[in-house]
Amino acid sequence: MNITDVRVRKVAKEGKMKAVVSITIDEEFVVHDIKVIEGEKGLFIAMPSRKATDGEYRDIAHPINSRTRDRIQTLILEKYQEMLDAEPEEELEEAVE
């Protein structure tokens, strides 16, 4: 499995959720609504989920093993950091114009 595209959309409002991400797998399958969350121990991802009848949230798409989850999380958090690193330059350019 190859993750062929990662698209990060930063969340504008303050809070624990920092971004919403879509990944493309093997240029054939897309998973939307992966969340980048700021937790007590740092950033992590939460897979797309929905609320069940018992009130608990259940993932509707998720990796089968921890190795794959770690790979996906690493790629997403790297892209998120790249977006943050590029952001101050964009804001600076807008201020100069």
UniProtKB/TrEMBL annotation:
Entries under Gene3D superfamilies matching the protein: Stage V sporulation protein G
Listed InterPro entries: SpoVG, SpoVG_sf
GO biological process: division septum assembly; sporulation resulting in formation of a cellular spore
Keyword Cell division: yes
One of the Pfam families matching this protein, by short name: SpoVG
HAMAP family: SpoVG
Family: Belongs to the SpoVG family.
Function comment: Could be involved in septation.
Entries under NCBIfam families matching the protein: PRK13259.1
Protein name: Putative septation protein SpoVG
Organism: Blautia obeum
Gene: spoVG
